[in-house]
Design brief:
Layout: H1 10-20, E1 24-25, E2 27-32, E3 38-43, E4 46-51, E5 54-58, H2 71-79, E6 81-86, H3 92-97, H4 108-112, E7 116-117, E8 126-127, E9 132-144, E10 152-164, E11 169-170, E12 173-174, H5 176-179, E13 183-184, E14 190-191
Antiparallel strand pairs: 1-13, 2-3, 2-6, 4-5, 5-10, 6-9, 7-8, 9-10, 11-12, 13-14
Length: 207
């Protein structure tokens, strides 16, 4: 089957993308508004960019029904700061509670029973229950689309501080079993890395 995006509703294209691009890591992003209102929300278009400087990106889409910007994006535009909290299986249900589009005056930390704690270098809170927190300062925001529903943004942030649970960091490497991260599939489905395999990469010989 061949599908042309030009002749297909963006809602159907969205379903194809989230069913094809799997599994996706989840950025549980905490921000604070210019009025000091805490916010935390999950985003599954998320990845690393580079390590020098340490840089990540995530992509908050416009709301599907009216094309409006989400509170997370608005807060980052206003404050230039955010925290990416990595999602382990132990907080998955609370994370899902935060995925609802609440009004901007609602504190998702309170709704979900999660705990905000102070960051070190930036103002937005980080998540106590997360085993890895990445304090970030905004690098740039790239808008994609024509400003209507179906469009979105790429938020690029520089990591200014890592917070890593001591149990997760072993010999300066992340212990996946201890982190037990959760990935996003399509619909209401999630996954975790319990069935892994290893392939050694050949190192190019010196000439």
């Amino acid at each position: 089957m061949i599908i042309d995006p030009d002749n297909t509703a963006f809602q159907d294209i969205h379903k194809l993308m989230i069913g094809s691009i799997v599994p996706r890591p989840i950025a549980f992003v905490s921000t604070i508004s210019k009025n000091k209102q805490n916010n935390i929300a999950p985003f599954s278009y998320f990845n690393g960019v580079c390590s020098n400087p340490p840089t990540i990106m995530f992509a908050p889409a416009r709301r599907g029904w009216d094309g409006s910007e989400k509170d997370t994006l608005i807060n980052i535009k206003d404050t230039k700061e955010f925290v990416v909290n990595i999602v382990s299986e132990s907080i998955t249900e609370q994370m899902v509670k935060c995925s609802t589009d609440f009004e901007s005056n609602i504190d998702e930390f309170s709704i979900s029973g999660l705990t905000p704690i102070a960051s070190t270098k930036i103002n937005p809170p980080r998540l106590l229950e997360s085993k890895i927190n990445l304090e970030c300062k905004l690098n740039q925001i790239v808008e994609i689309g024509n400003g209507t529903a179906g469009g979105g943004f790429i938020v690029i942030g520089t990591i200014v501080l890592f917070h890593i649970d001591d149990k997760v960091l072993v010999n300066n490497k992340i212990d996946l079993k201890e982190l037990n991260p959760v990935g996003r599939l399509a619909g209401s489905w999630y996954t975790k890395p319990t069935d892994n395999f290893k392939i050694e990469r050949k190192i190019k010989p010196n000439k």
